[in-house]
Amino acid sequence: MQQLRAAPQDAALGATPELDAELLLAHTLGVPRARLRSHPETPVDAVPASEYRSLIERRAAGEPLAYLTGWREFWSLRVAVSPAVLVPRPETELLVERALALHTSPEGRVVDLGTGSGAIALALAHERPWWQLLATDISAPALEVARANARHLQLTAIEFRQGSWFEPLVAMRFDLVVSNPPYVGARDPVMSGGALACEPRIALTPGEDGLASLRAIVRGAPQHLAPDGWLLLEHGATQGAQVRDELVLAGFRYVRSHSDLAGHERMTEAQHGQI
Fold first, then answer.
1. Range(s) for CATH 3.40.50.150 in the chain?
2. What is the pTM of this model?
C-alpha cells in the first residue's frame, strides 16, 4: 500500500491507492471485491504474497490496473484487455450513448473503426442485437482480443476485419460510422509518462499531427455513409473546434460536440447529406 501511495496516480483511469490495492488483492485471491468488503474478518493467509507484491510493484511503476487484472468494465460489460489494446475509458461511453440516441431503429448498419478491444462495438451489439455490426483495426493482435471478447460475451454477430480505417470496407455504406481513433500528438508530454507509456503507441498517436487520423476518417466517411447517416468521433479535450471545422469543410451538417462528465468536449457528431 505504501508503494501505491507514494507513486503518481493515474487520474485518467480514476485510480486510488486503496482501491488499487483492494482490486489487486481480490484478483490475486480469485474472489469478487465485494467479498473482501462483506467478510473483512476472513483470514487471507492463502494470499500468494509474491504474486500480490509483484502486482503492487507493477502498479506503482505506472502499469495500468486493467493490464494487471486482465479486464476493464465498459458499459456494464467485462471487457478483457491486454497491452495490445487501449484500456477502455469511461468517457468513451459517451460515443455509445450518442450512437444509440441518433439511430433508434432496431435495425442498422454500423462500423466501428479502430475497434481495439472491441469495447464500442460490443456495447452497441449488446444494446442493439439486430444491428449489423462490423469492426476494423489495423492491428492483428488487437483484433484477436476483440474477437475473444465477442466470443466470451456471446456477441458473435459482429464481423471483424483487419485494415486501416476504410480499407476493408470497399463499396460498403453504413447508417453509423463510429471511431475512437488515435488523436494524441507524438510530442505531447503525456506520451512519455503515466499509463499511456504502457499502452500501444499505434492506438494513441497518429504521429506529429494529432488530428491526422481524425482528418482521414472525416474525409473518407462520405463514401461509406448512407444518406442521412451519422459520423461520431471521439477526440481530445481541446480538439473539438478543429474537428467541427473539418466536418463542415467535408460537407457534413448538424455538426455538434458533446462534453464528458468533466465538462471537456470529448466527441463530435455530424450527419451526412443526400448522395
1. 83-271
2. 0.87
